[in-house]
Specification:
The chain is mainly α. The protein has one domain. Helix 1 packs antiparallel against helix 3 and helix 2 crosses helix 3.
């Protein structure tokens, strides 16, 4: 059960990290840099995507731990 849950959490974490990275990458362009410098709402969106990336990466790590250390069998 823990191993299956670990795989699910790992996949969700990796998918969230990739999606957050793609969305966050839009702010690395020249246009994105100008938008974040001028608009505080765009800066908040950029920070939100960055936070999602790191939270997703944390979830993926938890998934790896659950897969590697499955726990006791019942």
């Amino acid at each position: 059960m823990n191993r299956r849950l670990g795989i699910i959490v790992l996949l969700i974490g990796l998918a969230g990290f990739v999606f957050g990275t793609v969305q966050r990458g839009g702010y690395d362009t020249m246009e994105g840099a100008i938008k974040t410098a001028v608009s505080s709402s765009e800066r908040k969106k950029k920070d939100a995507w960055e936070t999602l990336r790191w939270l997703s990466l944390g979830a993926a790590v938890v998934g790896v731990v659950l897969v590697i250390l499955p726990g006791k069998k019942e």
